[in-house]
Amino acid sequence: xxxxxxxxxxxxxxxxxxxxxxxxxxxxxxxxxxxxxxxxxxxxxxxxxxxxxxxxxxxxxxxxxxxxxxxxxxxxxxxxxxxxxxxxxxxxxxxxxxxxxxxxxxxxxxxxxxxxxxxxxxxxxxxxxxxxxxxxxxxxxxxxxxxxxxxxxxxxxxxxxxxxxxxxxxxxxxxxxxxxxxxxxxxxxxxxxxxxxxxxxxxxxxxxxxxxxxxxxxxxxxxxxxxxxxxxxxxx
Length: 236
Ligand code: DLZ
Prior knowledge:
The protein has 236 residues and is an alpha/beta fold. It contains six helices and four strands.
């Protein structure tokens, strides 16, 4: 009998303009690796550039909400400091242009220093020998420094004999929800809360079955796009 679980028929969303972070715990590493790998493949399939997928790890799932919050903030700091540097360079070039113009008596050619470096062939996208699998397949995009459009938190909690599982599962799910509502950046809930290792392996596609990482990658691309549209007053 066909299953009614899951997000239904996959919607197609374009990921080439997105920058996405995967933050994963290292507990239950084998299962986590399989989930992260499917998450990453789904992002690449949707067109997200390998250069724009940033992966960070933390010891366990309990650390995920804090890491997501800080990584989102770090990307926003990175974007604004680069914008400031670019602004200073442009202002400096403009100043230099007028100074040179004064020195040389206002000649037209010397005033346009801001155009320096824009002529001639574009610089190579990758140094020789730096190609990874995705670039070899045609991924030629430069890494972006825009803030993350979405973050995917991945962890596997396996119930033990104590109350640890309940406390961590509860804290992490509430924490991740809080991070996305506080920051306005979608945080995809890639946390498996399972009773046995076998259940975890099944949900990571390791013993047959569907790998949930694929859904998480797709959810990040969909929410990254929709969030941008909603922020600009557009609906799909
Ligand atoms: C302590 C602990 C336990 C018992 N189980 C798991 C687990 O199944 N999955 C997981 O991701 N992390 C586990 N941890 C570690 C905590 O998440 C956390 O890393 C530590 O308590 C340190 O804060």
